[in-house]
# Entry
Amino acid sequence: MMPCGAVIWQALRNLAVAVASRCARGGVGQEMIARAALCVWILTSLAGLSGLPAQAAELVLFEAADCVWCEAWDAEIGEIYPRAAEARIAPLRRVDILAERPADLAGVRGIIYTPTFVLMEGGDEVGRITGYAGEEFFWGLLGIEMKKLDGEATAANGVAGPRQPSLYEQGEGH
# Structure
């Protein structure tokens, strides 16, 4: 299991990503953004979590608001990815390709097309998938990339043992 602080930090980061994603799509008002930001700041300050290291592994989705292939990924995979075994090892993080690049992703170069999925571990790029051509394509290539992860990534994210079959491989991703 992940330490309590890491679980809280991950939940706070997921909240911030969700608010930013909705904001980019015009679905969240300024008041909601301000409230969410205040909650994140208060909780991280009170809990003293600001110095925690980044997630051991994560899947960074570089996307654009007008990308039809990003929309297709959202429709086919976006709802089920959080429930997949892969998400326990590498939680999804969304980054707008047109926005300023977060400091921890400054070393990720060559992102031109959307969607581009970059598998990160300990701040370093492990692999990437450029484009989206359907569920089978995505799960198959992600499985190949996930095999490149150090075993510590799965342990740090609370996943023990060998990789579990994806929802697609189990027949639930259709």
